[in-house]
């Protein structure tokens, strides 16, 4: 049966009952799941308020095209249903709990002579699962303790009575090492084995007191029978159990089982720590990160985390300690904010974990940011710059024996090439191969344009060349009144030396430095860009010259053909009519005949 649905305009028709509401967009995709003590009041609050709602919530409300509801008996039932729906559908506007791990369990199998081993797959028919464990190390510690206290088998043999009585198996090395009593050969009966399993089960449940009483009783029995060797063995096991318990004990061991949750909030994220306490000991500790979606208050974030983590780690503790004040605890969930005593110490311990996790996360994010800018920070330091050089422009000239003099400018943003900002320049005012004058022209043209268009200027200019080219570039900056406002350096090719204007000697940067490699990379990119442009121009000139050898064909006609057909090869492949359509009948016939003349 389909859930009742409403149009957003009909939100006032919703019942005054607890339940869960679901918002769908125009594509009938679930975008938000919410819980409410009163469905009518809660849903109406999204549509009736004009102030006090943040932009993210307003954006979500604009997307809502359909509302579905499910009525439940209590607010706590609504919490549980909301959690299940969010886990299943993961709507885009709901709080995200950033934790996609699968956690390990310890499985107690339901076979003859049961085994205990770790697994991440839960198949209920195999036996009883204990966990999940937030830490593999903690799980292994428990498993190691159990195997040190009890001689449980680790093999996968089918130890049914029929198989054992048929003498199908032989004892393995574990028997000879004293880690197993050989049930496979009938050397241990199932009743005594199950007695050990029962005590192991108590440890897995956190009931260490029962296990301690068991070993103490066994030790006294052995001593009374003057079996001092067995008594010593039980004493050592009791000591191991007491030592394990002492390490994990944080409050009075008579304290009932309880959960501890604390939250530390940031602008976009919140961090929640969960401690599970059983018989005065921490049996689980987990910190998670929640991503805020609609600027939710901390109480709502914490409540969401409590429901999800208790569900995930199968907690049934009746009391939940929190570090926030909940005026109205959901029915069925006892939320307490302790002020003094052992329980307050647990809150402080949990808060330490949450704060440490937050510090680690933020420092990791800052480290990632610093790593990204590491080379630029090093360059800033090496060149003694006032600002981070996240916008670098580099110039290079190219001419071969004075033909087709051109220049290039490449741009690097945040240490990476920004190819859309690259520029080619034809040298217009310089006659002959004059690199210095050509450099002055292109630098002047580039920054005169940026100033006139009010575009951002670079934080560093790199000139491919030595003192001569650098001086020419500086002259252009002076003419534009930009000298001293933009740092400028030259890199000489021969020894890869870095020059500042007016400095007689180059500055020293370690040849293995990442900052020098960045400058070299930018210089090489400018050189490649200039050479490619020059080569293209020479290639076009060569193609033009082929056409210019045809009588009656001038440069304008040749360029017209190349512009239309894009290459000399395509002109050769074109039909007579196609060429005539571009340059006319007379010239077209001349070109056709010249190209196809045997």
UniProtKB/TrEMBL annotation:
Keywords: Cytoplasm, DNA damage, DNA excision, DNA repair, Excision nuclease, SOS response
GO CC annotations, alphabetized: cytoplasm; excinuclease repair complex
Span of domain UvrC family homology region profile: 264-477
Stored InterPro entries: GIY-YIG_endonuc (IPR000305), GIY-YIG_endonuc_sf (IPR035901), GIY-YIG_UvrC_Cho (IPR047296), RuvA_2-like (IPR010994), UVR_dom_sf (IPR036876), UvrABC_protein_C (IPR050066), UvrC (IPR004791), UvrC_RNase_H_dom (IPR001162)
Example of a GO MF term: DNA binding
Subcellular localization(s) per the UniProt record: Cytoplasm
Pfam families xref list: GIY-YIG (PF01541), UvrC_RNaseH (PF22920), UvrC_RNaseH_dom (PF08459)
One GO-annotated biological process of the protein: nucleotide-excision repair
Main location: cytoplasm
Presence of the UniProt keyword Cytoplasm in the record: yes
Family note: Belongs to the UvrC family.
This protein's name: UvrABC system protein C
Gene from which the chain derives: uvrC
